[in-house]
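Hey, can you fold this one?
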Amino acid sequence: MKLEGKIAVVTGVSHGIGLATVEALLEKGVRVAGWGRTAPEIEHENFYFFSCDVRQPEAVQQAFDQTVQQLNGTVSILVNNAGLGIPANLEDQKLEDWHKMFDTNVHGLFYCTRLVLPGMKEQEEGHVINISSIAGNTGVKGMSGYAATKHAVRGISQSLYMEVRDYGIKVTCIYPGSVQTNFFDNMENSPASPNMMRPEDIASTILHALESHPNYHHVDIEVRPLMPKGKIQK
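Sure. Predicted structure:
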C-alpha cells in the first residue's frame, strides 16, 4: 500500500517504539497523529500531538475527534503501541499495578481500535498494528500480569482480523523480544542492553507490513534479537 498522504494514529509516542514508528511514517509522507500523555520532541509539518491517556475512554474519544477534525480525513493506520509492564510474581502483584497494566495494554487498545474501524470499513481500507510481546506467546517468570495482558492482545488481534478482513482491513500483531527502551527501567535484574533490538528495527517491521500488497496480510510477526547476550567469548 502506498503510504504517502495517509493518516495514521500512533499511541505511546514519547519514546521507544512509538517514537521510532512516528519518525519512520513521517519519512514516508504519512500524516501522523500521536496520542500520548507526554509529547515527543518532534517538529514536523505532518505531525500532530494530542494529549491522551488511553486508559480513559473519554480521553481517547476526544483525541479521535480532534484527529479527524484537524487532519480532515479518515484514519487509515492505527498502531496500538502504548503499554507498560510491572514485574512481580502473581501473589506479590499489587492490585493497582495489575489494573494499570490491563487498563493500558488491553482496555486502551480496545478504546482506540473501536473508534477507527467504522471509517476503515467505509473506505474499505485500513491497517491496525498491535504491539504484543513474546511474553504473550511464551510467558515470562515474574511477569504473569504483563504476560496476561499481552496474551489478551494476541487473542484480540487474531479474532479481529477475522472480523474485518472482508472489509479490506488488515490486523497485524507483532511480538517483539527485548528492545532497547525504557520498558526495563523498573527491572533491576534486566536492564536494557546494546544486545537488544533497536526501536527503529521494530518500526521497520511495521513499515514492511504496512507497505505490503493489499491482498498480502501479515497476521503474526515474532521478532527477536539474534544474539541477546552478545557474541560468545572465545
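The chain has one domain: 7-223. Let me know if you want another pass with a different chain boundary.
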